[in-house]
Amino acid sequence: MDTRECTCGSASVREAAATWFSRMQSQSMSAGEKAEFDAWRAQHALHEAEYQWLVSLWSAADLVPKARLQALCEAPVISVRRRSVLGFGLAASVLAVAVGAGVWMHVQSTTGYRADFATALDERRAVTLPDGSSIELNSRSRVRVNFDRQQRNVELEQGEAMFTVAHDSEWPFVVQAGLGRVTVTGTRFDVRHDVEQARVAVESGNVRVQGADAQSVVNLTAGLGTVVNAKGQVAAAQPVNIDALLAWRKGQLVFDNASLAEVAAEVSRYRAKPLVVNTPALAQLRLSSVFKTDDTDALLAALPRILPVAIKKRADGSQEIISAK
């Protein structure tokens, strides 16, 4: 999968997909145009996902009564013959109508939707899913999406992601992060999956967080968060600084009385080599400050002026926080 950042917005990608779709339906593309189309699809995973979504929606249009399509389009006549020659306007109309009619439920019941999305070091990425939900991925993050008839499944394999879930009380949205399982029907929340734990924080709405067994469950509302440890145990709900936790979406690292161990772990997400703390005593030092995610060198330069520490470069290129004494 190509994980390079898509430089265009999801709306423009969807428009491009509709244009290519209509040209493919016309069956009049030259060999050169076909090669250009193949290159566009291969350029980014989102291109292929949007095109395949439109193909599925067009297939599903046969399942919707013609009168319903006409009413949704607010037009007196619309042809829904799949093999007819399409213009861009009709392709876009079918896309809008299918969404408005709830056609996706028909699509996912027969074909489903599967996709993988990932980010590299110092990369952030936003993707729009076929149900209208969106995922914002932080640096070094990877998700696997699998929608089926029963529920919308997403596995956060590593890293951090902000989820904005389109409401559907009959079609739950489930995020798996390690041994933690987050279930919602419509809300905005952040999930971070590290090696030893998964952290969940809710910006709006409410979510249900379950651990390794059915008895380990916590319900979260806006402004609350929890952690699922390596054993699958869910901690009690606690108030969280949601603005600080979501600062990565603005390219910021916000530390509010954070331990130096927490600082090192967070900074390591944005560096090619990890930042480590020399001793447990140093790891307990506290820091409150704001830095940029794309300039962690500035943070390392500032630390000795804020705390009684020094920065040592290791032979492998990583950095170590040591005592200044």
- Strand residue content: 25-35%
Q: What is the fold-level CATH name, i.e. the topology of the largest domain?
A: Jelly Rolls
Instruction: Indicate the low-confidence ranges by residue numbers.
Output: 1-5, 72-88, 97-102, 106-111
What pattern of helices and strands is seen along the backbone? Answer: HHHHHHEEEEEEEEEEEEEHEHEHEHEE
By DSSP (H or I, 4+ residues per run), the number of helices equals 10
Mean pLDDT: 82
Shape: globular
Helix content: 25-40%
Largest sheet: 13 strands, mixed
Q: Would you report the number of β strands?
A: 18
CATH class of the largest domain: Mainly Beta
Going by CATH, the architecture of the largest domain would be: Sandwich
- Intertermini distance: 48 Å
Plain-language structure description:
- With 325 residues, the chain is α+β, with helices and mostly antiparallel strands.
- It has three domains: 10-110, no CATH class; 113-242, Sandwich (Jelly Rolls), CATH 2.60.120.1440; 251-323, 3-Layer(bab) Sandwich (Phage tail protein beta-alpha-beta fold).
- The chain is 31% helix and 32% strand.
- It is built from ten helices and 18 strands.
- It has helices at residues 10-26, 31-43, 45-60, 66-73, 88-100, 104-110, 242-245, 260-268, 280-283, 296-306, and strands spanning 113-118, 125-128, 134-137, 142-147, 152-164, 173-177, 180-184, 188-193, 197-204, 206-210, 217-221, 224-229, 238-239, 252-259, 275-277, 286-292, 309-313, 319-323.
- A hairpin with a 6-residue loop joins β10 and β11.
- α1 packs across α5 and α2 (31-43) packs across α3 (45-60).
- The relative contact order is 0.07.
- Mean pLDDT is 82; it is low at 1-5, 72-88, 97-102 and 106-111.
